[in-house]
Amino acid sequence: MLEWVDIPAGRVILEQGWVFNASSKEPIYSARPLRTYEVEPFLISKCPVTVAQYQAFIADRGYENEQWWQDLARRYTDPVNIAKVGNRPRTSISWYEAVAFSRWLSAKLEQRVMLPTEIQWQRSAQGDDALEYPWGRIFDQARCNTCESRIHETTPVDHYPQGQSPFGVFDLSGNVYEWCLNAYDDPSETNISGERTRACRGGAFGFSQDRARTAFRTYFSPTFRVGAVGFRVIMCHDTQLSRSG
Fold it and tell me: Measuring CA to CA, how many Å separate 25 from each of 15, 60, 162, 171?
């Protein structure tokens, strides 16, 4: 169903991100280092989850099976209908729906599948050299779908092979923002219960190149369902689920 890319262990430095400015009473972005994290090896989906791949979850009555929604603060009974088809990224998906899909896929593959943390996502995008963009240090609008490309909509997830990361992961800059597992204000918090604001990464077709930097951090409410936000998933090594019955 998904093609996986092996990401080796490494190190990631998260930026501070959006902080509240007391004088202007507006958030400002800080690229100052927040913390350095060690990353264990894992597998990540080569591309964002597509419309066709998410449709398999819908067709398998994913919105009706309470198992996938257990302990989540919000449950949805129907997906947002979108016009895009095939291998475009599936958008208009809340963080809760992305978690439900990952649980369903875990059961199908008998492996532990989940959303990536910001640390895992950034490791997949930067490689060993802390690259500014997945392909290098200089922005190139021919390698990704941001507002500079003037496409104004999503593109197929394999449309920019020249924009892949050092590990061979596609679409980590532009096209759609991607949900991450962790809370934005505490990257180490990955508990799926509650309604905390969740991190998103990668920029999108309607946003400028600065949002598509590999280290740029932003966030949305976990209920956010818009056409510029999608997701991808990871699989951890040696976490095969045991069969029951």
Answer: 21, 47, 41, 34
The CA distance from 101 to 108, in Å, is 11
Alpha-carbon dihedral angle through residues 178, 200, 14, 195, given to the nearest 10 degrees: -130
As a whole number, mean pLDDT of residues 188-212 equals 96
Band of the pLDDT at 239, cuts 50, 70, 90? low
Q: Edge-to-edge strands of the sheet including 4-7? A: 4-7, 42-45, 234-240, 111-114
Arithmetic mean of pLDDT over the chain: 94
Q: Measured between alpha carbons, how far is 33 from 18 in angstroms, rounded to an integer?
A: 12
Sketch the domain layout of the chain as residue ranges. Answer: 4-240
Give the position of tokens 């590990």.
167
CB atoms closer than 10 angstroms to residue 184: 19
Superfamily of domain 4-240: paralog of FGE (formylglycine-generating enzyme) (3.90.1580.10)
Summarize the confidence of residues 83-95 as an average pLDDT.
93
Question: What amino acid occupies position 107?
Answer: A
- Nearest by Cα to 134 from 151, 146, 150, 147: 146
